[in-house]
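> tool_call: predict_assembly(chains=two)
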Amino acid sequence: MLRYALKRLISLLISLAVASVVIFAVIEVAPGDPASFMLGVNAQEDTLAALRAELGLNGSKVHRYLNWVGGMLVGDFGTSYTYRTPVSQMIADRLWVSLPLALYALTLSTLIAFPAGIYAAARRGKPGDLAVMGATQLGIAVPNFWFAMMLVLIFAINLRWFNAGGFVGWGNGVWAGLHSLTLPAIALALPQAAILARVMRSALLDILGEDFMRTARAKGLSRRQALWRHGVRNALIPVLTIIGLQFSFLLAGSIIIEQVFYLPGLGRLVFQAISARDLIVVESVVMLLVFAVITVNFLVDLAYAAVDPRLRSRT
Amino acid sequence: MSLLRIKDLSLSIHGTSILKQIDLSIDHGQIVAVTGESGSGKSMTALAVMQLLPNGAEVDGTVQLEGEDLLIRSEAEMCALRGASIGMVFQEPMTALNPVKTIGDQVMETILIHKAMPLAQARARAEEVLTRVGLPADRFPLSRYPHELSGGQRQRVVIAMAIALRPKLLIADEPTTALDVTTQAQILDLLKGLVREYDMGLLMITHDLAVVADMADQITVMRHGEVVESGATSYLLHNMQHPYTRMLFEASGHQVTLPKPPQPQPLLEVSQVVREYRLPRKGLFDRPRHHRAVDGVSFTLNRGERLGLVGESGCGKSTLTRAILGLEEVQSGQIRLDAQPVFTGHKPNLAVRRKMQVVFQDPFGSFNPRHRVARLITEPFHLLDTPPTGSDRQDRIAEMLTAVGLSPDDSGKYIHEFSGGQRQRIAIARALIIRPELILFDEAVSALDVSVRAQILDLLAELCEAYDLTYLFISHDLSVVRTVTDRVLVMRSGQIVEQGETDKVFEAPQHPYTQTLIAAAPRLPEIEMISA
């Protein structure tokens, strides 16, 4: 198990190194000079040169790459071209919104999807299954911003249980923070839960047809016992894969939901930075997201091994 | 009172009649074998006793366990009986165990689910039964996972689960069909021992008449969901009344006569062939280790000769087959057909490849279901520089289909319209259509029912007569190899341990391994066939 974890860790580090080079190279070839963008078209040549020097745009590419990576390792992401504030501070602020939101949504989606998927698989072809499958079909088909607007309409405007948008900050206590993230989290979670429930159902149906399920029944387990004791854990592998993918998506891809609820999250930060040619911010956020995705994959790999002993011994 | 008494059991699934008025009874300490070909309903009979029938099943009649009717029991009552009073062992040991749970947990589950004893005692009992089935805890701790065990060992675990609570009745559905002969002999011995020791009744379902004849007290022969004949083994073997029973026994020991092979003239020469597979490294900086699947194999196959290759699973016979076909490159040694190498550079030599064809084991998986028969059997034409076209092509298709006992009209059909035996005929037609110098039969009759197998063997003998076939017949089934080959190779751990004329090797095996193999193979008793 330890050897397996170590191997995955090494592959994680290699992926990160490769990703940093690719991101740096892509940003380098992107058109537009940040200095002239910041100072406008009428800027003097010498002021431009001074600003370039200040932003560190003059050194060789290798030198700048190493500076960038070295800075990130000690938590220095550089200074935003447009806002003139440390990028690390900007990202940290946004991360405190986006990360809890993603985790919140993922928890909700898992809590909805597991029971729904298992219930549907256990009642394959019966009305319960059809109802769940119909609901998931709807969940996949309806765009999440529409869900978001409906939620605002019902729970914020009519019932007044939640605020329609904005984030109160964690300064007012964890509960208040979570409360203001609830509607966006639900809007994000529903479509994900629909997908996850379907994956759970089909994975479980595959397992239910396996020989060892029949063996379990022959031992005297009831249908339900066999499903819970032998089915669910075996069905987890494909489900874990999807959960990993969904987390990455939730972390960065929630820009529309952030817009609807007016949340200061990572998605909006990237969008603003791209529009403003604030390359250092883009670079840093993208790198951070890559880091998150790779780390999540690493955790999913560890979870695979925890679930399936065959993976542990293979390496 | 009998332990199990099945009376007038009928079963239909979604309106299709599966079983028709089955009668069967088992006493304590008795082994009753139910035998028959696929589709005879023998497995369904077992599942009906367990009340583990598929959805849409309707049963009628009575199934009494010690006088209590099982068919009127509720599902909860049946759950309490399954595993405790009736144990069941299935055919496929590789998939019958949950891969993510330890063998200890799985054996203990049988005990704990019935709340038969507290945890500590259940653990001790699990160790005890695993030791009894030949998996002592010092070598096979309870913490092992199924993937760390071989097929035979897994079947022992399945048996341990089934007998953990000393059931009165054990049902074994083809328990040794997926196992090698030496492992099969051990498992059958284990089952016999358990029946004696626990005074259990054993309902043994098997298609293998040699196994049946060897261990059952009573035999029930089934066909199309009906019992055609039943009786005490020794009596039934000597007084078969029903023609179907007689046909089954005749087909199981079916012999064919091959034409005499011509003067030896080498066709396939295999010399010092080595095929290794790389294993995963133990550590990051370790040297990769290798597994030698084929280890210095040499033999010659003469033109017009029928050569057999026997060995147990994992002995390297499939790897050798793939190497001969040029599907895999070998690390060292030479394979030559007609004095030309099968592999040139790192590519298979097409000029040689077109002289060989192969027939695989699985008649269901080795055809593309979306092509018609005409296209399926003409596939080898791709190997030719100028494939026949037009009426020439039609004639070749018609000739081949007729040769294998089908009709030229079948060329427009799809593969799902054919039975397993017919599919194997089509596979042979596909192999024959370019008139190859050499055909490889890789377990080509192993998946077939005995009566169908007998027909295919007859077909082979006819084709030998008509087309002067040269073939390599790879099989684990010794009785088949014995009748359709002139010479035989015995393979073990990648090496050929014995070779010689088939009859001589079977009558006087020299190598100890060959002796074990032949001794372990269940044999049909010599039966005088009385003409009715």
